[in-house]
Amino acid sequence: MVSASPSNPAAPRGRTLLLDGITQRYGGSVAVNDVTLDIRGGELVALLGPSGCGKTTLLRIIAGFLAQTKGHVIVGGETVDGLPPNRRSVGIVFQNYALFPHMTVAENVAYGLDARGADRATQRSEAQRMLDLVKLGHLGDRYPRQLSGGQQQRVALARALAVNPSILLLDEPFAALDKNLRLDMQIEVKRIQRLSGITTILVTHDQEEALSMADRVAVLSQGRLEQFSPPTEIYDAPDSLFVNTFVGSANLLGGVLVDADRSGGKVRLDAGGLIGTRAPKGDLRPGSRVTVCLRPEHLRVDPGAEGVETLNGVVEMGLPLGATVVHEIRVGDGTAVKVSEARIDRTLLLAPGTPVRLAPIAPGLASVFAAA
Amino acid sequence: MAATLRNVTTYDLRLAAPLALGFVVFFITPLVILLALSFQADPQGTHYGLTQYVNFLGDRFSLGVLGSTLWLGVKVTLLTLLLGYPVAWLHQRAPSWAKGIIMLLVLLPLLTSVVVRTFAWVVILGRQGIVNAALASLGLIDTPLKLLYTDTGVVMALAQVQMPLMVLPLITALGRIDPNLADASSVLGAGHWRTFRKVTLPLSLPGIIAGCLLTYAAAITAFITQSLIGGGQMLFMPMYIYQQASTLQNWPFAAAISIVFLVAVLVVVSIFNVLGRLSRGYTNA
């Protein structure tokens, strides 16, 4: 069982999970296309992508609800392909929690222990211990319908962890919670995951959730793995145009690559100006049409900016968002560019129609991809 | 605000008035007349008393007919449940094209008259019927089995005739169960049988109870099937009432046994209702 406590800093290491070339076909369509993920023991990995990207299919394959068309699922070095769900040692927290409505909270948590043949006394004490872990020790006799959404989710988590699974799967677990409660539960789940050291897969379409909770994020699009990296890398160094636009927001500017090597590139923008970028991804040579992605917070409005990296534009709108201010600026080729700046200067908000100059806050922040 | 609400309510009541009128004229009134009739001490209606009820309850033969009718309902209901549950479960698990076919097969009996369906059973169960012919040609039996005009025959025929009443509520109940619950159960280590026993079956209880209630009520009052398959040797309450009223012209006694039958059925229905309410109480999440 989960034996770690806050006083025990050496949390047990979870088991590794290797998804080796998983492909899933439904008739003619490919839901998951040759996805390989090597997940370390105790790691929390988020599967992030829009609906229909194959993340839920992957989850169902790991759980054993679905047999993959190709590839292998390997848990702690052992292939589990062909094993039914009840012999896979995974725990799932479903989006709707799927608590058994005709059983009490304690009975729900003890269900897995009962199925594994634990005696009544063990069932009771373990269920109580798991409920204490999720801070619901006093609600064991209630029925699920008598609990709030957050409490139901804690019960679902306790039920999944009670059988000490090798892998914990979380299927959009926070989607049904309101915003304030969601953050509390995210912290809570992360705390329990750290404590138990269990290898965890979080399926989500919410990028903030993925970036804030996961040790590494796997971004999926149309069944393909786009990138598998730590959150900061996903955000700062996206591997593809999809990742760059799906995670965070990005201004897309057309241009021509004029110079590129491993350390970086230079792009002549259609909107005017020559901009320094990260090293281009893929097979791009000088002269290629490219798309440059600039995050709104990587730009600043600077009347005094000079040099080749600057862009001329006209303010379309200014939005004061409390701590930041966002300006939408129409640049030379007609593209609307968003610029987000910290609101340190009270006079910063610019009136529509004001001609301005834009410059990157630092060189080489922009990403560059083959033109879409 | 209150005035608007009141308006809405009165409007609703007026809409229900035609049905309510029909209900009073064609159901409540005959029932009251029936009740009054049952207290007549003799067929001529010269004086009133509890004579008819005393006659019925003191008569072993009459009580036997009531008992065998109620028991017939139990047997038919159990058989229908046993055969119908797998069909409903299959419907739940089947792909959508197969769902349509299963539903059609379940509803098909309702599209033909009970008389036709029952005569089909006469053909199947008869001495020269399909069952006996098949068994004989396979060399399994020398003399035809007696299937028609037996208790077993009546139970089988009634179970088939009433099957939709069982299967439809079961399909509804099973359809309401969150499919994630079975997945959750199996991930927690339960095999198919345990999942069925601990999750699916308890959560389908409202459907089981509704189905049993409908089947039971229909089975014990199924005049046509009971009479045609049961033949002359077997007597159940509907036929007993019919004989007393039509053949013997003993209207007060017919009315009294009708009331007794009605009360007996109401008791059974109330038990089912209580069970139903209990099961709903804990299945609604």
Automatic annotation (TrEMBL), chain A:
Molecular function GO labels: ATP binding; ATP hydrolysis activity; transmembrane transporter activity
Gene3D superfamilies, alphabetized: 2.40.50.100, Nucleic acid-binding proteins, P-loop containing nucleotide triphosphate hydrolases
Residues annotated as domain ABC transporter: 17-247
Any coiled-coil regions, as ranges: none
SMART domains for the chain: AAA (SM00382)
InterPro entries attached to this UniProt entry: AAA+_ATPase, ABC_SmlMolc_Importer, ABC_transporter-like_ATP-bd, ABC_transporter-like_CS, Mo/tungstate-bd_C_term_dom, NA-bd_OB-fold, P-loop_NTPase, Transp-assoc_OB_typ2
Gene Ontology cellular-component annotations: ATP-binding cassette (ABC) transporter complex
Keywords associated with the record: ATP-binding, Nucleotide-binding, Transport
Entries under PROSITE patterns matching the protein: ABC_TRANSPORTER_1, ABC_TRANSPORTER_2
Alphabetical GO biological process terms: quaternary ammonium group transport
Pfam families reported in the protein's UniProt record: ABC_tran (PF00005), TOBE_2 (PF08402)
Name this protein carries in UniProt: ABC transporter ATP-binding protein
Organism: Azospirillum doebereinerae
UniProtKB/TrEMBL annotation, chain B:
Topology term for the membrane: Multi-pass membrane protein
Transmembrane regions listed in the UniProt entry: 15-41, 61-88, 100-124, 203-231, 251-275
Compartment(s) of residence: Cell membrane
Major site of localization recorded for this protein: membrane
One CC-aspect GO term: plasma membrane
SUPFAM superfamilies: MetI-like
Domain of life (superkingdom): Bacteria
Keywords: Cell membrane, Membrane, Transmembrane, Transmembrane helix, Transport
Any single GO BP term: transmembrane transport
Domain (ABC transmembrane type-1): residue spans on this chain: 66-272
Family: Belongs to the binding-protein-dependent transport system permease family. CysTW subfamily.
UniProt-recorded name of the protein: ABC transporter permease
Organism: Azospirillum doebereinerae
